[in-house]
Amino acid sequence: MKTEVKNKQLCRHCGKGTFSARTLPFHAWKDNYLGELALTDFLIYECSSCHRQLIPYESVLRIERAEALKLETWLFKQAGNALEFDAKFLSNAELVSLLGVSRQAINKSPKYRNLIYCLCIKGEYFYYRESAKLFKKHGDGRLHIDEVFESQVDSTIKDLQKGKIQYHTSSNGVITYAES
């Protein structure tokens, strides 16, 4: 499905074609830290001549929401029960102590929330301990969480092959797993 863009711009890459809006049924977005994200009905603009693709603002927002959801889902899985949560996450005061910066610096500077993985629960931020330690050492606390997901998926596939677990797909496409 192609629709024309209202203000036809010449492609800056080839200088010949104009851009048309196109909706891709599926688009895989690769993030260096979060891995691959699957997006459906993804809007792009494509040059009619060289087929160069531009991602409009609305699609960028969808990517950001998908990244935030994947990270939050991963962090909640890491949190586990209350005892595991205390071992894996730092409070704001503990982060202040670990990094040796003021509480105000952490609250006002977005770099701490952007470069250290954190969860916001009832308005209070909790920082992933491993990410905070990595930030202290290198100035960037982002972990390659897709590698963790891949090892979990590999483990699930092996268990399926060995018959240790079985899966069922519901009518709405949700897959559930159960031990055999």
Could you provide a short overview of the structure?
This protein is of the alpha+beta class. The chain has helices at residues 57-79, 82-88, 92-99, 103-108, 110-115, 129-138, 145-162; strands at residues 2-4, 19-31, 35-47, 53-54, 89-90, 118-121, 124-128, 165-169, 175-179. The protein has seven helices and nine strands, in the order ββββααβαααββααββ.
Strand order of the largest sheet: 1-2-3-4
Radius of gyration: 21 Å
**At CATH's second level, what is the architecture of the largest domain?**
Orthogonal Bundle
Question: Helix- and strand-based class?
Answer: alpha+beta
Q: Which series of helices and strands comes N to C?
A: EEEEHHEHHHEEHHEE
The CATH class of the largest domain turns out to be Mainly Alpha
Query: How far apart, in Å, are the first and last alpha carbons?
Result: 45 Å
Helix count, DSSP H or I runs of 4 or more residues: 7
Backbone shape: elongated
Overall structural domain count: 3
Question: How are the secondary structure elements laid out?
Answer:
Blueprint: E1 2-4, E2 19-31, E3 35-47, E4 53-54, H1 57-79, H2 82-88, E5 89-90, H3 92-99, H4 103-108, H5 110-115, E6 118-121, E7 124-128, H6 129-138, H7 145-162, E8 165-169, E9 175-179
Antiparallel strand pairs: 1-2, 2-3, 3-4, 5-7, 6-7, 8-9
Structural overview:
There is one protein chain. The strands form three sheets. A four-stranded antiparallel sheet has the order 1-2-3-4. It is 43% helix and 29% strand. The protein contains seven helices and nine strands, in the order ββββααβαααββααββ. It has three domains: 2-62, Ubiquitin-like (UB roll) (Roll), CATH 3.10.20; 80-142, Multidrug-efflux Transporter Regulator, Chain: A, Domain 2 (Orthogonal Bundle), CATH 1.10.1660; 146-179, no CATH class. By secondary structure, the protein is of the alpha+beta class. Residues 172-176 have low confidence and may be disordered.
